[in-house]
Amino acid sequence: MPIHAYAASGPDAPFEPFEYEPGPLGYGEVEVAVEYCGICHSDLSMKKNDWGMTQYPFVGGHEVAGRVAELGEGVEGLEVGQRVGVGWNSASCLRCDQCLSGYQNRCPDAEATIVGRHGGFADRVRAQAAWVIAIPDEVELVDCGPLFCGGLTVFNPFVENDIRPTDRVAVVGIGGLGHMAIGFAKAWGCEVTAFSTSPDKEAEAREMGAHHFRNSRDASQLAAAAGSFDMILVAVNVALDWDAYIAALRPGGKLHLVGAAEKVSATVFPLIMRQKSIGASPTGGIVTARKMVEFCARHAIKPTIEEFPMSEINAAFEHLESGKARYRIVLAAG
Ligand SMILES: [Zn+2]
Ligand SMILES: [Zn+2]
């Protein structure tokens, strides 16, 4: 049976209905019937070939929520009909040092769901069983697509940096990533500060769980936070006054980037003297993904979404490009 998808034939082409024959389901693979698929900024970057690795026709979509449609040979622990999600990664070698240490997201041979293969803007999508994440009953399918890329990307830094409930965390940027980061930080027990260039987002940020709001265009508000934060999670992809944010860290604090600004330029001496560091991370490993959805179930965390029928995928992308999405777009498969 062919897979019915939406593909773009080039960087500037719209998505159009597209069929492809996936061939026999491989050993250890799972076919997922897509019910919802989030749109991530990476889908847009890939469509436009910003990273020089796009193949056309391009079928994006790596925030899949759906049900197991078919199990390949050798797959155990999943059942047909089970609610599952698939994110940025769809396979890894499962035998290298990274995979065996729980860092499957850092596997040199990891496969990305929309790179060199077709993703989840479709009625079905395939992935290696280990990367097919079970969704707890408490989480609605419509809400959880964005968790598997955007959500995991901002959850992972809490795990990697051993963030404690007593820590103070700042989130820079209240957008697709940042709004989920605020929810995680609040549920983690942290004191949460949201930085945004849009003062009109203050009330919403507080509703999401921020205890404090600071206007990142106002240098004095950042200066007033000097020495405050154990982690500053940067969820924007623009250049910041890096030294000023580093000054806002507590000794031992971490400036953690998940937004791909082109360059970070920082004065080294304050890093040395207060043992501060700059780090970054890509999505997260399989166990972290499982823990994240359980954490969301336990704390009723969900992204703020806008839903479009998948047939209106081009309108949804225009909405994303306009910067007006609040905060994550989800396509509902017909
Ligand atoms: Zn993504
Ligand atoms: Zn590996």
UniProtKB/TrEMBL annotation:
Its cofactor is Zn(2+). It comes from the Bacteria. The keyword Transferase does not apply. Belongs to the zinc-containing alcohol dehydrogenase family. SMART domains: PKS_ER (SM00829). Residues 10-331 form the Enoyl reductase (ER) domain. The lineage of its organism: Bacteria, Pseudomonadati, Planctomycetota, Planctomycetia, Pirellulales. One of its GO terms (molecular function) is zinc ion binding. Pfam families: ADH_N, ADH_zinc_N. This is alcohol dehydrogenase (NADP(+)). The gene is ahr. The keyword Oxidoreductase applies. Its EC number is 1.1.1.2. Keywords: Metal-binding, NADP, Oxidoreductase, Zinc. InterPro entries: ADH-like_C, ADH-like_N, ADH_Zn_CS, CAD-like, ER, GroES-like_sf, NAD(P)-bd_dom_sf. Signal peptide: none annotated.
